[in-house]
């Protein structure tokens, strides 16, 4: 019998005996068995490590995520117009916009902000201000065309910098634009920040709706409530005859029903809107009389109402 088999035999015999600890082997005391209580205690300790405490951002009253499973569905367009519309309908409120898409930040382009942010006396980064909205993005901290490969821990560190190292306060609401998918960014944000709700953006294609479902399931698991669904690019209107063309399908309502969610706003495809946002002047400012601008103001109103309800619920829970 070789040595390894001999050891295995002794180990098996000890496992089936009442012997709990084997006295020093090469200077180490080997534990063979643990009681149920010890195992549960160990599990609780590991779990506690895995779920960091959700510390509020100093001076920030509420946080709303804008998310979706798929890229290119209009998350950033929605986040930018929503943040600006919130400022337009409640000018006395302080609104912030955090670009948490560290892989492909597009808030600087869409909000027309550039230049290196400054550090204040407390060593915090001062957000840049445009259209009355305080903005911060990784695109302002790493130079323009440098592709950055962010992975796991690096993403968390980048987010830590964009959240806790920025002088956000005072803010009534921080709108957070997120990257596509259900990855490290969403996990990290949901585990570290007290998020009041997520606005889920989708287009009507079945591929987009499927990924949206996955996103909604992820938020359920992370205990992030959903404010509602925003359907983007619902249909296109023919410029010559005015016919509605449902080029991407019509399944959004069905998906929303299946998930028990409300469609809180719906936007058609609009070339003007795209041109505005891509030239750094969101439709809410560039085309204030357009249907889209009006719909963004309605969306902003719904988000304010949602936040107010959450605040009331919190106050009641404290009583
Ligand atoms: N309703 C819309 N009509 C026309 N173009 C739109 C609409 N919504 C978004 N876009 C355009 O689609 C592109 C992708 O939008 P973006 O907001 O960057 O998507 P995401 O952040 O989900 O990747 C942008 O060029 C934007 O201008
Ligand atoms: Mg985006």
From TrEMBL:
One of its GO terms (cellular component) is mitochondrion. It holds the Pfam family ParA. The keyword Transport does not apply. Belongs to the Mrp/NBP35 ATP-binding proteins family. One of its GO terms (molecular function) is 4 iron, 4 sulfur cluster binding. One of its GO terms (biological process) is mitochondrial respiratory chain complex I assembly. Keywords: 4Fe-4S, ATP-binding, Iron, Iron-sulfur, Metal-binding, Nucleotide-binding. The keyword Iron-sulfur applies. This is Iron-sulfur protein NUBPL. InterPro entries: Mrp/NBP35_ATP-bd, NUBPL-like, P-loop_NTPase, YlxH/NBP35. It comes from Chrysodeixis includens.
